[in-house]
Amino acid sequence: MIEVCLLGSGGMMPLPDRRLTAMLFRYKGRLLLIDCGEGTQLPIKLAGWGFKAIEAILLTHYHGDHVAGLPGLLMTMGNSGREEPLTIIGPTYLYEVIKGLCVIVPKLPFEIRLIELPEEEINTINLGEIEISTLPLEHSMPCVAYCIELKRPPKFDVDRAISSRIPKKYWNRLQKGENIEYNDSLFTPEMVLGEKRKGIKVVYCTDSRPVEGLSDFAKESELLILEGMYGDNDMLSNAIEKQHMLFSEAAEIAKSSNSKELWLTHFSPSVKNPEEFLVNASSIFSNTFIGKELMFKTLNYED
Amino acid sequence: MIEVCLLGSGGMMPLPDRRLTAMLFRYKGRLLLIDCGEGTQLPIKLAGWGFKAIEAILLTHYHGDHVAGLPGLLMTMGNSGREEPLTIIGPTYLYEVIKGLCVIVPKLPFEIRLIELPEEEINTINLGEIEISTLPLEHSMPCVAYCIELKRPPKFDVDRAISSRIPKKYWNRLQKGENIEYNDSLFTPEMVLGEKRKGIKVVYCTDSRPVEGLSDFAKESELLILEGMYGDNDMLSNAIEKQHMLFSEAAEIAKSSNSKELWLTHFSPSVKNPEEFLVNASSIFSNTFIGKELMFKTLNYED
Fold first, then answer.
1. Which of B7, B77, B162, B288 has a CB 3.0–4.6 Å from the CB of B22, allowing a cystine?
2. Are the beta carbons of B223 and B236 closer than 8 angstroms?
3. Where are the domains of chain B?
4. A207 part of the active site
5. If you measure CA to CA, which chain A residue comes closest to B46?
6. What is the pTM of this model?
7. What ipTM was reported for this prediction?
8. Which residues contact A162 (CB under 8 A, 6 or more apart)?
9. What is the CATH number of domain A2-154+195-299?
């Protein structure tokens, strides 16, 4: 099970009635945060999952609306009594940006570990049982989409383990994927594991034009969160110029990736009522929702 | 006439129902902003005076709750089409802080002019007809109080000007304080100006312990805005340790400075209902008000 919470739905700048886009994930009491614009610490507080358990902050890119709230959040986390190291992941310029913003952050009671993503097509980072992958996007600065995946191990086949005479003490390690040498035998996970099982996959993408690999990257996701800067199809030239997406373009990606559900977010301040344009997406991909502050969802394994 | 607007009343961190302390001044359509914590651009928007006319930003110090909103505000000002230079004033470390925070600010359509205050007892800067003075405070980093003063020129005495045979074309320059040499005569402002007249003086002070010079600095102010981190007198040891003030300490300063009105602000998140402690200040200085977001006041000359 993964719980998600969309923390805001705005793009460019916070508005009195619309907080900036960011997202919180909870798995076994540990939290991951994607992006941290000005004011993001407020919906985190309102979400009620606390600040202390934030294990990692994943930054899509370094425009202010995605990162300017970081110094404030770090200070609030420091005040919450956190002592465990915090991981911050982001594309090129991460070191420079964190160094700059932290000029106003006093000494924190926890260590910050930075992971600046290499400029590869796909990067994968394992954080406990969660696998984080990134895909480069097309924006006015280095920017990545994130895939958060909780892998599900295949079922353990007790009958096969017994018939292969594998001592019980190795079962757990085999299920976790280890090979075991025992006397002259080699026990492999394949000997005891059943068919692959689908995990839980959530893909988050702001800010970008639709890029070629995105549909594959989001393939079969349970939940796809995509930016929809403009709702009106007539805004295509603005979307191209500012390197953002239309609702309809986001819906095409949800459809071609065979995702289960699409949340649109990161609306331009000029889009006063995003619901008005929902039909431009739902006519292409019916299971589309307009993102809102504190929109929660619990994602479970399929069966 | 000066109009003022308190933009928030919180200290340490923004809360869902309490924005951070900052203040906006309007004089002849030009704006001055004191401090810019995370989210301060939102009450500025709600105040309705616009972003474009902000002529200068005065920073008291560089704790996040006073400065972390600066990158977002600069970007919003850039988006508002502003092109005139912006002045930012602050104590020691101003260059370093602005350079750090601006790592996420793209190229702006206006120039930023920095005035880092020398470590003097009192600094005075003239911004058009407004005189800005600063006083060093006692906090955990360099921090200053600001005095915003609209000086009022003395009345021009037409009868004396005529009897002193001063040509009319020099009257205006004399009223502005210039000496004029004319043939073999020297005309001085004293020859034509009446008694001094009181201007409009507003003093703003967060964060600090009460310091010796503060009462003098705030002398006869029309409006005194002071931090009141804690309302309860029993919190004195916390106030001393964290270098903040109690409501009662602020009220003592309002009283001894003979100010007209006191606004308390910068409440600790632990102070849920500041009104509850108002009596601790008003019993010392009766004209005390609990600061609130979007508290406006228009200050006029005395007569």
1. B7
2. no
3. 2-154+195-299, 161-191
4. no
5. A16
6. 0.91
7. 0.89
8. none
9. 3.60.15.10
